[in-house]
Amino acid sequence: MRGSSDGTPEVKTNWAGKRVLVTGGAGFIGSHVVDRLLRERALVTVIDDFSTGFHEFLPARGGLRVVNGDLLDVARVD
Fold first, then answer.
1. What is the rounded distance in angstroms from the CA atom of residue 42 to the CA atom of residue 64?
2. According to the 3-state scheme, what is the secondary structure of the chain?
């Protein structure tokens, strides 16, 4: 197992087929996390209110579900 530059071990997770929720996925950092998870074949749901994020960061793709809403809106989260 390779380690990172700070000496901690690098952990490889098999994301294929796993369901992942990303909050703030339409922002700069969140959209990159979503891209990586989709490349790893995860099933990704993004919840974002788009107050600072952009729809353009989340083009329609297989394995991606986008919910336009606030995490505090329980009806949207269920």
1. 9
2. CCECCCCCECCCCCCCCCEEEEECCCCHHHHHHHHHHHHCCCEEEEEECCCCCCHHHCCCCCCEEEEECCCCCHHHHC
Residue 30 and residue 24 in contact, taking contact as beta carbons nearer than 8 Å: yes
Give the amino acid at 25.
G
Question: What digits encode the pLDDT tens for the residues 13-26?
Answer: 899 999 999 999 99
| pLDDT tens figures, 36-68 | 999 999 999 999 999 999 999 999 999 999 999
Cross-strand pairs, 64: 44
- The per-residue b/e assignment along 46-57, b for 16 or more CB within 10 angstroms, e otherwise, is bbbbeeebeeeb
**CA nearest to 72, candidates 41, 45, 47:** 47
